[in-house]
Write a structure and sequence with these properties.
Blueprint (H helix, E strand, L loop, with lengths): L1 H15 L2 H15 L4 H7 L2 H10 L5 H32 L4 H14 L1 H11 L3 H29 L3 H11 L3 H11 L1 H15 L2 H11 L13 H15 L4 H24 L10 H23 L1
Helix pairs in contact: 1-2, 2-14, 4-13, 4-14, 5-6, 5-11, 5-15, 6-7, 6-8, 7-8, 7-12, 8-10, 9-10, 9-11, 9-15, 10-11, 10-14
């Protein structure tokens, strides 16, 4: 029965190909499943999303890719550093546990739950802290996925402005990509490319946290998510070789399908957590609102 439910959900997700609908179906399906098929869902994890992002590489020209990174990577880098420091400062003001502050600051600055999970083993975070952070990040990303495209159109943001805004102001890659493509195909490709540039900072982050915590841990390119490397490779292949037009069309269709399936499976893994201390919610929300405002100022001033 549960396997059939997953199959029906995937058919619906593939049919509608809308990130908000995919998220909604994931919430309903997850509520029905509870902990059933947990191992399968965990195994699938974010693989469909990563596959979708890699396939987007076929749609991006090398010139557009280099222009985006050359023009915006310095901004993204400064933004990541400022966000992380703001997270540490605001967290201290709320007198919260240092490990929780690290998790929220890392998640907000770089790539959401992925960044938080990457450093959790270094700082020896408690399982309940990790679960709470993942839930809070998921909650804020769900709000962003639903509201940001509406806000962008209301404010009259261009495709490139909205792509940059999504890449800066939203935590998780799934919601960045989903939000971008809800706005337009161009905004989606821009948001994806810039988010990949932001995710690269996960390697320096791991090195920094290990240094601060005095952990003897070697840091290398293996810490970089493999899909980012594959994304670069696909861009190279699609620009070096002249591929049949059908390849580009099929890859674009499949990328959107995999992204929506990825959002569905990520939603399935998000469980509601009890928040005993209101400050644990006020802190990440305060940090996020600050980040959203900074992001808006940046995109409208360029």
């Amino acid at each position: 029965m549960y396997k059939l439910l997953i199959v029906i959900s995937l058919i619906l997700v593939s049919f509608f190909q809308n990130p908000i609908i995919s998220l909604s179906i994931g919430l309903v399906t997850g509520f029905i499943l509870k902990d059933n098929l947990k191992d399968f869902i965990t195994y699938v994890g974010s693989r469909p999303l990563q596959t979708g992002i890699v396939l987007i590489g076929f749609s991006i020209s090398f010139n557009a890719f280099t222009d985006l990174l050359i023009n915006y990577f310095p901004i993204i880098s400064i933004f990541v550093v400022i966000t992380f420091l703001l997270g540490l400062i605001i967290g201290r003001l709320f007198s919260l546990d240092k490990k929780f502050i690290y998790l929220i600051s890392s998640a907000t600055a770089i790539c959401g739950a992925t960044a938080a999970l990457a450093i959790s083993s270094i700082i020896k975070a408690k399982p309940n802290q990790i679960s709470l952070v993942v839930f809070i990040i998921f909650l804020m990303n769900s709000i962003a996925l639903a509201l940001f495209p509406i806000m962008g159109r209301f404010l009259g943001l261009t495709d490139i402005q909205f792509g940059l805004f999504s890449a800066l102001a939203i935590h998780d890659t799934a919601s960045v990509v989903g939000s971008g493509f809800l706005y337009s195909d161009e905004a989606g490709e821009i948001a994806t490319t810039l988010k990949v540039g932001r995710t690269i900072w996960i390697v320096p982050l791991i090195a920094l946290i290990a240094f601060i915590e005095n952990k003897k841990r070697s840091v290398n390119l293996k810490d970089l998510p493999k899909f980012i490397i594959l994304f670069f490779i696909v861009i190279g292949i699609s620009n070096i070789f002249t591929l049949p037009h059908q390849i580009y069309e099929i890859s674009k269709l499949l990328s959107i399908t995999f992204i929506n399936i990825g959002i569905f499976f990520i939603t399935l893994q998000s469980k509601i957590e009890q928040i005993d201390n209101p400050t644990s919610l006020i802190y990440p929300i305060s940090l996020w609102i600050t980040v959203v405002l900074i992001s808006f100022v940046i995109v409208t001033s360029l």
